[in-house]
Amino acid sequence: MDADAPRDAFAHFQPLDDPRGPSRWHRLDEMLIIAILAVLCGASGWTEVQQFGQAKLKWLKTFLTLAHGIPSHDTFGRLFAALDPTQLEQCFLNWTASLAQSSVGKLVAIDGKMIRRSFDRASGKAAIHMISAFAAHNRLVLGQLAVDGKSNEITALPKLLELLDLQGATVTVDAMHCQKDTAAAIRQAKADYLMQVKANQPSLHENVKLFFDEAIEHRWQHTGHAYHQTVEKDHGRIETRRCWSTWEVGWLKKHVDWPGLASLACVEAERRIAGKVSCERRYYLSSIDGRDAAVVLEAIRGHWSIENALHWCLDVCFDEDQHRLRQGHAAENFSRLNRLAMNLLRQDRTLKVGLQAKRKRAGWDHDYLLQLIRKA
User: Fold this and answer.
1) Rounded average pLDDT per 10-residue block, the chain, 376 residues
2) For a surface tag, which of 28, 75, 111, 254 has the fewest beta carbons within 10 Å of its beta carbon?
């Protein structure tokens, strides 16, 4: 066997329990290795994982025993449908921890995404909904959980926070998670929060809106604040973002006991396209100091990295919304393979190309594929 084989990189999965009976033919660790390598090279389902294994059989045998050859796609499907997703997530977290840097001073965006084709009408199974934590500074997925069909993202988020080391980070969430319990959970994780306020909190939204409307109209007389503005021009579009932040939140604390509240922010986005002008204001609560509006605006804009650099890539580069994996935990567990592959591909700095091109290169070039794994 190849002395330079990447087996050590898969040691993170050693604690994983094998859910199959004693009559199993194929080794759990070897099936995991084949599946991860296949997804790195572009596989988007169990049939393609099997085809990858068959096409690479001679090479795989340089570091795997494969006593009974390559498992069938049904065998892969049954295994990943039965694997405990909680255990697999812990293995994912262990691997990610070896890739990620410290979260101190970094931005971590949390948001959910539905795997649209994972529903099963015949059994009444709803589509899988995954909530993910995404590190904006190095574009790595730090962790993820499936949202219980009987619950929602609001109750799943604190459970995800418990799995992660977020000390010193700023955690951003959308308006759905603008909840006192969520703020308390983030503070308990020794992190700061930044939350958008919308009409799902009508009284809070109205109070914050009135405060900023009056403060801006009266030019912030007798009210401490910071201001920052950015202007972007692209293809005939001019977008100006104005951010006001204030640390004077005592008036709100008298009415709302919000854990760790330290600042409020308002962002006004003005767009000019083909002579037409639109303007919108959005409002935020945060535990970070509001004395630097540029930092606040950067965190607000950074939240949307999870949409552009994670969810969009999963749909376009990994074709995740088209996966028809509906048996057991298969859809949830395959999504972890996708995110692990994305993390490994993003860690590589030798190729100045996109994720799709890197996946093709991994499928063509064994040395490059091994390079991706060895970096773990």
Assistant:
1) 56 84 87 94 93 95 92 93 89 79 77 64 60 87 77 83 90 91 94 93 93 94 93 87 95 87 95 88 94 94 85 79 65 88 90 92 93 76
2) 254
Rounded to whole angstroms, the Cα distance separating 71 from 50 reads 7
Alpha carbon distance 356, 221 (integer Å): 53
* Structural contact between residues 338 and 39, judged by C-beta atoms closer than 8 angstroms: yes
Q: Mapping DSSP to helix (H, G, I), strand (E, B) and coil, where does residue 15 land?
A: coil
Which helix (H) or strand (E) segment holds residue 29: the answer is helix 28-40
Cα 195 to Cα 183: distance, rounded to the nearest angstrom: 9
One-letter amino acid identity for 156? Answer: A
Helix (H, G, I), strand (E, B) or coil at 231: strand
pLDDT value, residue 100: 66
Residue 194 contacts residue 177 (beta carbons within 8 Å): no
The answer to whether the Cα torsion of 136, 137, 139, 144 is positive or negative is negative
Q: H or E element: which one contains 142? A: strand 140-146
Q: Is 291 helix (H, G, I), strand (E, B) or coil?
A: coil
* Closest residue by Cα to residue 341 from 95, 52, 117: 95
Contacts of 328 (CB under 8 A, 6+ apart): 80, 81, 82
CA pair distance 69, 71, nearest whole angstrom:
6
CA distance 165 to 102: 9
Q: Would you say how long the chain is, in residues?
A: 376
| CA 98 – CA 116 distance, rounded (Å) | 31
β-partners of residue 171 are: 108, 193
